[in-house]
Amino acid sequence: MSYKKKTTRNVRPGRKREKWTDILPRYLTFLTHMRPILRETRRIIIDLDADLLLDTEILDKIREEEEKRNFRKVRALSEFSAMYRSNIYEIIKDFLVKYRNQIPIIDIKDYIIEFLYESVGALNVLSHITNPDEANLENTYLYVLTKFIEERLFSRGRNLSIIYSKLLGYSSDLYDCQRHMLQPHTYYREKLESSDLFEIPGISPKVYNIINNVTSLFNLDPNFGEFPERENQELPMILKSEVFDPYIDSIANAEEEAIEQISERFGLRIIDGIFLVPREDLVDLLAENNFLRKNSQSDGKVRLIPQLSNESLFLYYLAFASQRRGFLSKELINWISMNFAFLIYMGILKWKLSDQNIFYPIFKDLQTNEKILPYLMKLLCFPNYLGIDKMKIRDSPQYRKEIFNFIGSQIDNLKDFISEIAEFCEKFDKERKNN
Q1: How many angstroms separate the CA atoms of 225 and 245, rounded?
Q2: Cα–Cα–Cα angle for 405, 411, 414, nearest 5°?
Q3: Is residue 406 part of a domain?
Q4: How far is CA 290 from the centre of its chain?
Q5: The whole model's pTM is what?
Q6: Boundary-marking domain end, from 102, 128, 154
Q7: Pick from 258, 284, 317: which residue ends a domain?
Q8: Within 13 A of 288's CA, how many CA atoms are on the CB side?
Q9: b/e per residue, 133-166, with b = 16+ CB within 10 A?
Q10: How far apart are CA 405 and CA 413, in angstroms?
Q11: Number of domains the chain is built from
């Protein structure tokens, strides 16, 4: 009897789990092509007689010659290099035309050379942001900057109380940045009532307003009832229905239906099906940080009076998300890793480039960001850094554009924090050189 082997069923392969050594070369690909172009341009400007800069057609001819000389076989790299070189020369020409009647041409030449020198320096740091074998991590920019930002915006700790206290300690200066970490601009992709009870989504503008309303109701006119876990103590309570009173028709139907899951992420719970009250762990956190005060009643019971600030409940959510970072939703992982990548990238640029540097727009350009930040996002997901699921990072170019488009709309606190990161870079660089 002959045996005929059955053909193997075709199974569509899933996404490959990328290693550090897979991602780092991709991150470096375009950086290693950007730096030589800037260095070549700087050398050309140095060698060029200053008076020749007055004729912008000469710059066009030089650029064309450089493009022919640097022709590359890989189409994507060739196109990017041509675009990048063209942008550099256009910026130089615009600078010359704008200031040639106001500033001596020799000074204009010096400015251009200095701006190019700064830009090469920035690319040098970005190209050596980490070690290929992840050795000596504590001495790399990627590691120390991740930990610097993480401590302030997405703290780690042995328990929720420690994480909450850390976040609260930085909230006076960075609360807007902390809250920003929880508010992905792709919130409309999130499922409020997820089938995965453990998944932690980002906060939509509507949920943000609802929790602000919850905070106000607790502060202004709460009811009080028995604390189930503790005798002789009374908890503040608000009616669930009052939370949704400001919303007419069906505007907040989805949020109302998912109120139990939303409440849990903010440290709240529903009692008797109608009251929203703090959970025991939230009560402890609020009391430790003076967001609850004790008031002894005539019947001997202790009433817990809320005196919440805007950040009280949101920092609980952030601490909760940080503690359970292995369960973040896809949108929140993309958003948090993108913001960390952006802060590190912009912090290094702020450190290395003067505010007047004419090449700043190239570094901020969406086309440049798309070539660098997605891979930096993935590097940040590894255990030594943020320790979140890199498999949830989206590879869709359209999605990248969708989230990177919001990079330009920074909040003021984010700009201030970038300056703080730049100062830290300077300090770290000096310490590294002295050791």
Answers
A1: 22
A2: 100
A3: no
A4: 30
A5: 0.90
A6: 128
A7: 317
A8: 14
A9: ebeeeeebbbbbbbbbbbebbbbeeeebeebbbb
A10: 19
A11: 2
What confidence category does residue 366 fall into, taking pLDDT thresholds of 50, 70 and 90? confident
Q: Which residue has the tokens 């099906």?
A: 273
CA 322/CA 339 separation, integer angstroms: 15
Region of 72 on the Ramachandran plot (φ > 0 left; ψ -120 to 50 alpha; else beta): beta
Residues 57, 59, 61, 63: is their CA dihedral positive or negative? negative
Backbone angles phi and psi of 355, in degrees to 5: -60, -25
Contact 153, 295 (CB under 8 A): no
Mean pLDDT within 224-233: 92
Per-residue confidence (pLDDT) for residue 422, from 0 to 100:
98
**Domain span at residue 114?**
18-128
Work out whether the CA dihedral 424, 430, 434, 435 comes out positive or negative.
positive
Token pair belonging to 409: 């709309």
Residue 3 pLDDT class (50, 70, 90 cuts)? very low
Distance in angstroms between the alpha carbons of the first and the last residue of the chain: 77
Q: What angle do CA 41, 43, 48 make, to 5 degrees?
A: 95
Tell me which amino acid residue 5 is: K
Same domain, 224 and 124: no
CA dist 187 and 206 (Å) reads 10
Distance of CA 307 to the CA centre of its chain: 31
